[in-house]
Amino acid sequence: MHLNQLPERAREVVEYRKSGLSLNHIQGCPLDCAYCVRHTYGLWDQRQPRALMTDAQAVDELVKHRYFRPNVTPIQLFNRATEPFLPKVRPHTFAVLEELDARDLTNHVLVITRHQLNQYDADRLNQLRHIKVTLLFTYSGIDRPEIEPYPSKVAAESLKLMSAPRLRNYRTILYWRPLVPGLNDTDEHLADARDLSEYADATVFTGLFYRDQIAQYYRSNGIPEPYALTARRKIVPEALEARVLAAFPNTVALFRKTSCAVSYVHGLPDYNGHYGIRELCDICPLSQLELCRAAHRVPTAVEVHDVASVLPEAADLKVVDITERAAVVSGLETEQPRYFLQHSLGFQVHDERHPHHEKRHGRADIGWTEKPA
């Protein structure tokens, strides 16, 4: 497969997403989860994993990218276009991880999977010495094959296996998603997830990323639409969140945000700087709150501009406001430079066009009854 054959959005092998700089030089996945983000990149029909370049070329492109900062920028591996532990993809996953590690980098590396892992995987991951690897096991408990053909029980068993070693250099997270009212939110579903969380180093819960392309796929295939509207953010209705929190005991390390959980399991403050949005933190372990509090520093407008000065696409950046919660900016055409600013500063950076409403936790307004503040 050649880059020029791909839809325009899919050609960007290195792309910034909120939880990290995403490397996707292997594209194509046969697992066919109906809600997959591949729909939004025009990659849904690419079911066989194919390499767009060698692993060495891909790592080189990543570390030379204008957004990459050694030992700072969080990295996501194959989280947009394939499953990292498919038999054909697994060798590429390890090649990238080992190349990054050989460079003595200490960046976070997030690997999101729902596939079957084995003892060989654990042993090989344990040989990594520098990068901070986190395995996020996508688990939903959805038992409808038209929505999720590859069963969640596989991810559950992989999580248990990979979490079992007492001494390990990687960390494990139960990535409980997507939670959808009426589909996988019964008391039994919640209890199953709670039980499974006991095996993981931490748990993150989140909702459905329901974009127009995904809604169109649902309609075309006769799958009942979970919501009447689509949204640019993930949907977690207020009542669903309340039931999740009620189902989990205080002893479980439960988080609303991926970066919070990833940072926690490595004993570090949140690299996305969520601490200023205090209603996000009301479920965090006290030890993590203290770490994040100590690291929390509100930047000045001059500092925001200084960090942005290395990016040509941030030439029109304006700092609209800075509070304890976030820096609000305008003048950025896309999300990617905003993520660069956020990770460089360790502080929330919001776009004026897309305000974060109080208690929504950066999610869609769908399913919330209170009028946004």
From TrEMBL:
Keyword DNA repair: no
Radical SAM core domain boundaries: 14-261
Domain of life: Bacteria
Keywords of the record: Iron, Iron-sulfur, Metal-binding, S-adenosyl-L-methionine
Chain segments carrying region Disordered: 353-373
Protein name: Radical SAM protein
